[in-house]
Amino acid sequence: MDFQFPDRVQLGLYPTPLTPATRLSEALDGPEIYIKRDDLTGVTLTGNKIRKIEFLLAEARQHNAEVIITCGGAQSNHARTTAIAARQLGMRTHLVLRNNGGKSLDGNLFLDRMVGAEITFVSAEEYERVDDRMQEIAAQYEKEGIKAYVIPEGGSNALGAMGYAFAMKELADQIKKSKQTFDAIVLAVGSGGTQAGLLIGKMLFQVPINIIGINICDDAAYFQNRIRSILQEARQRFSLPAQLLSESIHIVDGYVGKGYGLSRLEEIKTIKQVAELEGLILDPVYTGKAMYGLKDLIAKGYFQKDQKIIFLHTGGIFGLFPKRNLFF
Questions:
Q1: Catalytic residue, candidates 76, 156, 191, 263
Q2: If you count Cβ atoms within 10 Å of the first and of the last residue's Cβ in the chain, which end, N or C, has fewer?
Q3: pLDDT of residue 245
Q4: What topology is assigned to 49-154 in CATH?
Q5: Distance CA 98, CA 95 (A)
Q6: pTM recorded for the entire structure
Q7: Checking phi first, is residue 116 left (phi over 0); if not, alpha (psi -120 to 50) or beta?
């Protein structure tokens, strides 16, 4: 399909590598695992969020926005990426962050402060209406004559999803050059936009691969509805074919553990195992949970030994530092 992507401003470093995790594959005695290294999209911009933000901030600049408003947890990778990327483009940020246990100036929150982000902390109950809260803040800026642009949680809307539709083209080119066949992409799902984008890219570029999300909060039904909503919005906004909505949305439930941003011993052990085997650093909120899920699924025979799996490393290294006491 001949598709014209919307404007983007390139801030990340691409293409990110696709590398074999040989020792991890041997240790798990399952399929051959490769890692799509989207933790290497940049130093402070590390992770999957920058791919979405490139499209969203391009639109913000078209609207002459001066301040970007977005939201997340206190250690949100998305909020940190937005705050830094916006500053690189000369824009301010206002973050609405869920205070789920403390405001310790560490990890992502430290970087938010470093680039001068304005921060409004809200309770978990207040965060349930965070979209309304962001619109209220935007209205206040408008009253002061300051143009504001609101980005939803995780950058997960139709425009943000274009980041991973575009990334799928990059990955398809890497798969072609490798002269190998891959059976599935496994990724952590926290707001739905990354998986939605991969599904769009799979359709656009005819990539024959299963896309399997492991939710790190909420449940499978929530994300199936959320992703389908993003796909519907994308179809309408970008005139995509109706076949997009018939795409299966695979979410494997059961690995949320204690809840969003809360770690179990099994997850911590998995993060340490991967670090010691591969020198690969996962994070406790997203990739640690997803890798523990993949590890458990392999043990249960979900994948065959002759299959090849791509694990999407969505970054998040800064979220490790506030949890250092769990590791040693």
A1: 76
A2: C
A3: 80
A4: Rossmann fold (3.40.50)
A5: 10
A6: 0.96
A7: left
Look up 76 and say whether it is catalytic. Answer: yes
Distances in whole angstroms, Cα of residue 7 to Cα of each of 121, 135, 153, 159: 32, 24, 21, 10
- Dist CA 280 CA 262 (whole Å): 21
Label residue 243 by pLDDT band (50, 70, 90). confident
Domain ranges of the chain: 18-47+156-326, 49-154
| Bridge-based pairing state of the strands 32-37 and 18-20 | antiparallel
Q: 18-47+156-326 maps to which CATH number?
A: 3.40.50.1100
pLDDT tens profile 266-320: 999 999 999 999 999 999 999 999 999 999 999 999 999 999 999 999 999 999 9
* CA–CA distance, 9 with 64 (Å, rounded to integer): 14
Which tokens go with 312?
């999407």
- Mean pLDDT value across residues 147-175: 98
Amino acid at 136: E
Identical fold, 18-47+156-326 and 49-154: yes
CA nearest neighbour of 51 among 63, 61, 62, 37:
37
Average pLDDT over residues 248-272: 96
